[in-house]
Structures are given as structure tokens and as C-alpha cells.
Amino acid sequence: MDLLEYLIQFVTEERNALFDRVLEQRTRYLTVALEDIFQSQNASAVIRTCECLGVQDLHIIEQKNEYQINPDVVIGSSQWINLYNYKGNQNNTLTAINNLRNNGYRIIATTPGKVSTNLEDFDINKGKAVLFFGTELTGLSETVLENADEFLKIPMFGFTQSFNISVSAAMILQSLTSRIRKSEVDWNLSQKEKESIKIEWLKTTIPKVDLIIDRFNKEIRN
Predict the structure, then answer these.
(1) Three-class SS of residue 168?
(2) Are 109 and 152 in contact, with CB atoms under 8 Å apart?
(3) Cβ-count burial of 167 within 10 angstroms (0-12 exposed, 13-18 middle, 19+ buried)?
(4) Partners of 83 in the beta sheet?
(5) Is residue 161 classed as helix, strand or coil in its secondary structure?
(6) Is 137 helix (H, G, I), strand (E, B) or coil?
(7) Calpha distance 33→109 (Å, rounded)
(8) What is the pLDDT of residues 142-194, one digit of tens each?
(9) How many C-alpha atoms does 92 have within 13 Å on its Cβ side?
(10) 34 pairs with which residues across the strands?
(11) Are the C-beta atoms of residues 93 and 128 closer than 8 Å to each other?
(12) What is the pLDDT of residue 222?
């Protein structure tokens, strides 16, 4: 018996089935990078949106602003997705870009400027994509704009030329996750990824899980 099978014994059949249903809708084909977000409620709202729409990973870049979670906004959603934090270096944005590109992601800068592709025209078939969202006042940094593979915008028809960041993320993610699920692209997690994530979810759910895992390890050794 492996660890996953062992831990499943400590949750209800309903809980286990719920985990499996949710994992079937999880994706890493799309991911999000938040660059230097100032307002905690905005970053937290994006976390909640990612979780609701099945986006498993979210990348947090700290440069001038320290990232903080607002518990009243996330409502526990942060425990179900993977958060990756980039901080402590001179150029955390470039570190994030290089890491994501090395993992096969197209770098997509969301901005109303530049020569941007309208949301409805974005090509979901070209491969995995990371959507970069910038700080509330100044938008994305020059580092992102200079290193982006593509630019993406939401068409707007009013006098105001930008949405709140959490609104932008929600609109873009809802559109793109809906489209990939109707497409032929391979957007699902691998079986290995599902099992790894499920173990972490079980750890979050099971009381005194550290003691249970210790007991499992002792049984394996014996």
C-alpha cells in the first residue's frame, strides 16, 4: 500500500470522491503570475478565482510590495492550489519568467497597451500559457513587457481603459478555461500530478496527519 491509499482510509467516501471530481477539472495548461500586487484583497481575489475555475498554480512575484493573503477574501481557497513565491533576488520578475519559460510556458502580458490580441482571438492551441498581471497603479514592469511572447487585452468600450486587476483576471480566466475545456488541447493533469496533489489535499483534511504518516512510515520499514 502506498501513502495515497493509506491516507484515503482516513476520509469519507464522499470526501474522496469530491477530491477526484475536482482533480478531473484541474489544469496547469494555464497559470497566472501576479507581479508586485499592492492590495491584498486583489491578490486574494485572484487566488479564489483560480481555485474556482480549476487553475492549480499561481505565481507570486514580490519586488517592492510584500504579498499578503486576505483570509476574508480567499475563504480557504489558498489551501487547494499551489502558490509559488518569488522574492529575495534583485530581479524576481526575471527569475519567474525564466522559470516558467523553462517549463514550457508562453509568457503572456495582459495589458491594454502595446499591440495586444483581443481576448476572444487568443490562440489556446499554441501551448501552455502564463498570464501576467501587474500592480494596480502602473501595470506590468518593463521586464515583463520586454520579455513577453504575446500581449493580451480585454476589449473595452467606455472612457475608462482598464479594469480592476481581480476583475481582469476573472474575465480572462473564465473565458480561457471555458475554451480549453471545449477544445482538443491536452489540458488535464497527468495521473502522477493528480496523485501528488491529492496527497497534499488529504494532509490538509485529515486531523493529526503527521502522526498518521509517521505510523505509515514505520509500517513500511517493518
Answers:
(1) helix
(2) yes
(3) middle
(4) 58
(5) coil
(6) coil
(7) 10
(8) 999 999 999 999 988 888 777 888 999 999 999 999 999 999 999 999 999 99
(9) 19
(10) 60, 133
(11) no
(12) 65
